[in-house]
Fold these 3 entries.
Entry 1:
Amino acid sequence: MTPNSSAPAPVSRPRRLGWGFLVIALVVAGVGWWSWRGGAGDEEVSNEPPALAEDPKRALGEAPSKSAFGSGAALERRSSPGTEDMRVSVLSPEQRERLERRELWAERLERAKRTLESYVSATRYPPQSRSIREHPDQVVLAEPERTRPLSREHADVQLRLKQDRVFVVRDEAVHFFVSCEDSQRQPRPCQVLSASAHEAEHMPGAGAVPAVPVAFTDDGAGGDALAGDGIFTGRFQPSKQGFPLYSGTLRVDVRVRSDKAEGTAFLDILYTPSPPAAFTGKVREVLADGSLGLYLGINVRKAGRYVVAGRIDDEGGEPFAHVSFNEELKEGPQEVKLTVFGKLVLDEVPTFPLKLRDVEGFLLKESGDPDRELMTTMRGYVHTTNEYPPASFSPAEWVSEERRRYLDEYTRDVDEAQRMLDQTFDEEKRP
C-alpha cells in the first residue's frame, strides 16, 4: 500500500455475506476514509509523503523552519501531535529514511549559507580599516571607570574609581579619582586615608623598588576639578616619583573611609620610561586604488613589530572609523600607513574633510610581561584631510589571499550541501 492510498487493501469475500462480516467491512471502509481525509485533506493528492507536501520550503529545497538535526526523527510539527504521528506511521522505512536525510542536508545547507553570508559581510573591509561601531571601546582613549563595594562587610557602600589614562610614557602623569556612593548612586561622605604606588605583585621581581606615597586631595588643585565635591584626586608621575627606570605595571593602593566604614582598592597603569619609537607629527595623504592612505612619520629607535591605531571623525566630529597598522619596522625614519578604505567611505557616507585623532602605538614584544613598549600618544586631532567626491573611492570589497581561501572553503560547503540535498530529491523521483 502506497503512503497516500485512500482505500484499504482488497478483502476476499465469502459467497454469503453475514451481518457480522458486513459490520467489519463497514468499519474497515470507515478507517480507510478517515486515513484519506487525514493524509490528503481537501487538497489534490501528492506523490510526496504528507509531511513533505505540507511544507513548500521543503519542496523548493530550502531548510525547514525547525529540525532535530542528526536525531533520526526530524519532522516539523505544524498540525496536532496525534495527526502527525499518524502521518509518520504511514511512511515506509525507506521513505522515512529519505525524509530524515533530506532534512539533515537542508539544515546543513542553511547553516553553510549563513556561515558564508556572515563571513562575506564581516570581511567586506580590511581589518585595518573598520567602522567605529565595531569598536565601541575604542571611540575614545582608555579612561577606565568602575565601581566596587568598599568592603565585604559594607557592600552597601560603593567605591567609584576612575583614571584619565592607562598607558603612561616617559614624563607623563596620570590622575586618579576616588568617590563614594550608595546603591542608588547617590554621593556618600568619602575620604582617602592613604595611598601608595608600587610594582604590581604579578610582575617578575616585584618588590625590588620600595613603595612611594601618593597624595589624594579634594581641594580643587593639582588636577582636582572642584574643591569639596567628594571626589578625591591623586596625581602620579612615575618618572619623578620613584620609578624613573621601571618598565611594566605599577599599582596604586588606596584606603578609603565613608562614615565608619573602611575598605581598600587599587588602580593600575602600564609605564614605559623610554619609548622605542616616536611620532614626528607629520602626516601626508595619498588617494590610490580607490582608498585614502594617511602616512604618519615615525622615528624608530628599536626595530620590531609595531601596532599603531587612530580614530577618524567626520567634518562635524562624529566618530566614523577605526584605522590601524600592524607590521614590522626597521630602525630609523619610517612611515606608518593608516588606510581609510574606499568601500567603507561609500557605505558610511561621512562628510568631508575627515579628521584623524588620538593616535597611539607600541612595540609588540615576543615574550615577557608586559607584552609591549609604549609610544607617546598623539592626543587630540592630528590631521585634517582634503575633500574628495564619492567617485574618488572604490566600491570593491577587500581582497586578500586569506579571504579568498576562506570564501572558497565556505562556498564548497554550500555546494556540497546543495548537491546532497538535490540528490535526495532525485531519489524521491525514482520508482
Note: DSSP finds seven helices and 19 strands in the chain.
Entry 2:
Amino acid sequence: MRRQSLNVAVAMATFAAVALLASPLLPEGPTSGPVITGKAAFTDYTQEKPGIRRKITLADLPQPYATKGVDNGAQMIKRPDGAWPQAPAGFKVTLYEGGLVQPRLIRTAPNGDLFVAMSSSNEIMVFRGVGADGKPKQVEKFADGLSQPFGIAFYPSGQNPQWVYVGNTDSVVRFPYKNGDMKARGPAQKLADLPGGGRLRGGGHWTRDIVFSQDGTKMFVSVGSHSNVDDPDTHPAEFHRADVLEFTPEGKFIKVYAYGIRNCVGEAVNPTTGQLWCSTNERDMLGDDLVPDYITHIEEGGFYGWPWWYMGGHQDPRLEGKHPELKDKVITPDVLLQPHFASLEMNFYEGSQFPADYKGDAFAAEHGSWNKSNRVGYEVIRVPMQDGKATGEYDDFLTGFTTADGHVWGRPVGVAVGNDGSLFVTDDGSGSIWHVTYTGK
C-alpha cells in the first residue's frame, strides 16, 4: 500500500514537472482578473477600472426598447485638481502636451514623429520626441487649410514613405513627404472626392480614416452614415455611406469593399493576418444596452447589418420587414463593446516595451456615450488577440476621465504606439495628449 502510494506520488510529481516544462513561461506584468460575462458585462463609468475584463455575447442582448432611448450628452468640465488618467499597475501616465484645441486621430511616422489631426482648425500638427520634462522636443504645423481632416496614412509603408495621405471630410489628399519632414514640402494633391462632406456639407458622420493594405495596392477609406437609421433605399444622402470604400493609391475608386458599417471611425490592418479591422459606432435610441459598438475584422464584400439589421439576424424594429434576404448575410462582429461607447481610433500593439502578453493585442479609444442613462466609455480599452484573432473580450485599460458624480473632463479619441513601444492617447475633452509607459513598478 505504501509502495502504491509512493508510486502514485512519484507519477504525479513527474506529470507536474513535465507539464511545467511543456507550458510557456508566463509573461511578466499585470494580468486581468476573471472575465465578467452575461448581463453583468453591461456597465457604466462607475464600474470601469483598469484591468477589468468583460465579454458581451449575442445571448446577452436585450429586446429593443427594453429601456427608453435618452439624450444624456456630457457637458465638459475643466480637469479637476488631482484628476488623472488611471492605468493598470506597472504603467505610468504623464501629460505629453496640453492646451490643444480638440486633438483627434494620431499616427506615428516611421521616424517616430507623431502626426495629429486638429480637425476643428483644419490642420495637421507634428510632435517630435520626448524631452527630459516629458514634453515634446519640437512641435510644428505640418499643413493647414484642410477640410475637417481626420485620417492620416504614410505611403508606401516602411522607412521611406513618399507621401502623407489625409482624409478630409469631403476628399482624400496627399502631400509629398520624406522621412523626418515636419512641414509639408509641397501643396496638397487632391486624389478623390468622398461622399457626404461633414457637418457643414450635408450632415452626418464626418470623420474619414485611411489605411493601406499590407501589399500597398489598396487604399481603404471609411465613410460613416449620414443618419442614425435612415433607409438608403429612400434616402439618397446615404449613397456610398456606412461603407468602407476601396481606391487605388492614386485615388481611383474601385468598389465598396464592405457595407452596412454605420460608422467605422478607426481603421487598422492586423499585422498578423493582414486583414482590415474597424472600430465602429453603431446606432442609437433603441435603449441603454442596444446596439453594441464593436471592433471587428472586415471581410471583402461583407455586410455588417446597418440599417436594416444588427448583430447578426436582429432586425431593427424601425425598418421591420425590410430586406429579409439580407438576414443571413449579416456578419456578427468579433468583439461586442458597450452600446454607445463611441469607439474611435484603434491600433495594434507591436511594440516591445509593454509586457509580452500585450503583443498583437489592439487598443481603442472610447470617446463616451450620449445616448445612455448612465454614462459609459471615456476610456481606452485593450482587446486581447490570439494568433491575430480576437477572443471576444476587452479590458478597461486607461480610465479616470470622469468624476465620481458623473461629470466628464476628458474624452479619448486616438491611440498610437511610439517607436519605443509606449502609447500616446489624444483627448479632445481636455485638449491633451497623454503618454503611457510601462515601468513595472
Note: Residues 1-29 have pLDDT under 50 and may be disordered.
Entry 3:
Amino acid sequence: MPTNTLTDTICKTAKPGEKPIKLFDGHGLHLFISPTGAKVWRLAYRVDGTPKQKSLGAYPLVTLAEARVRSAELRKGLLEGVAPVTKKKRPKTTFWEDCEAYWKGREDVSSDYKANALRALELHLKPQLGEKATAEIDRAMLLTELNRMDAKGRFVFVRKVRMWVSQVFDWAIEQDLAKTNPAELINPKKAFGRRKVKNHASLSLREVPEFLRRLSFEKDLTSVLACRFMAYTWVRTGEMRMMRFEEIEGDLWEIGSERMKRDKDHLVPLPRQALEILAAMWSRRRPGCDYVFPSDHRIDRPISENTVLALIARMGYKGEMTGHGWRSIASTWANEHGYPPDAIERQLAHSPEDKVRAAYNRAEYMRVRRPMMQAWADWLDESAMTKVEIHS
C-alpha cells in the first residue's frame, strides 16, 4: 500500500464535496473533509477484526507531519497489543465558549475574517444561545435565531452566519462536544429569502466628465481620494476599504485570496495617479494605522462601506452612480478602445468561463494591463479638463 501520498498543498487546497471526502496518506491515516469544509485527521484501524476509527485532531491545527507522528505512535501501540485509549467525555462547555475556541484557532484565515465571523456570531446567536451547551442546540433553536435575521431582510448575511456556525458545530463534533450539526440540516436555498438582484448604478461615458468636474470641487477628504482611487484601479469597494500599505510593492498592489470574491490572489497595476493618492494617504498616516483609507475616528478600522456612497449622494448623484459603478464605466471604455477581453476581465478580477484560459498565470496580461490602466487614468484626468492637486 502506498504511503505518504499526501502533501501539505493537497491538504490545504482540497475542496469539500456534496458528500464527505477521505484523502488517504497510507496505513489508515486519512484527512476527512466534511461537506461544510471542516478537515479532520483520522486513523482507521482494527481490533480483533473489528474496524475502528480514531480522531487525531483538526487540520491545519494538526499539521500533516504531526498527524503522521501521532498515527505512527498509535500503530506501534497496536502492534504491541495496546489499543488507542477512548477519549473521556470532555467537560461541558457553552456554545459561545466553543465559538471562541474554534475561531481563535483558525490560523489559516486572516485576522479580519476571523473577527468578522466571531462578531457576527456574537451579535446574532450569542444573546439566545450563548449560555447553552453546544450539544443541546438543535435545528429549531438555531433556525429561530437565523429567521430573525432573515425577517430583517439580511438575506446574504444570514447565509454567512449559517456557514460560520456550521463550522463551529463540525469542530465541536470532532472534539466530542456535540453529536450533530444542526446548521447542516438547514438548507439556505430554501430556508431564507432573496433580495432582487440589481446592477450597481453607474454613469455613461459621456456623463463622466461632468461627474469628475463636480468631484474636483470637493476637498481632499479621505472619501474623495477613495472615490478617485476606485476610479483609477477598477477595484470593488470592499477591496479598497481593506487595503493596507504592506500590500503595495512598487506599482503593484497584491490583494490576498481571502479578500477576493473568487478566492484567488489578485494583482492590481497602479497608474501614476493612483500612486500619487497612496503617497498622500501615507503622509497623513497616523501611528499604528495600517489601513490606507482609515476611519476618521479609529485607526483600527477602515472607512465604512457607505463613505463613498455618501460622498456621491452629497454631489447630487444618488441613485445614478456608485463606487462600484467605476468598474462598469471602465470596462465599457476599455472594450471601446479595443483592449483584449482577457486583460479587461483579469483587471476586474473576473475568472474566464473557459477553464483552460482561467489556468493562465495571473501576471500574464500585465504587459497589456499596465499601459491600459495608465491610458484609462490619463483619460479620466483629460475628461475632467482640470489638473487635480492632491495635498498631503
Note: Strands lie at 21-26, 29-33, 39-47, 50-58, 248-249, 252-255, 266-269.
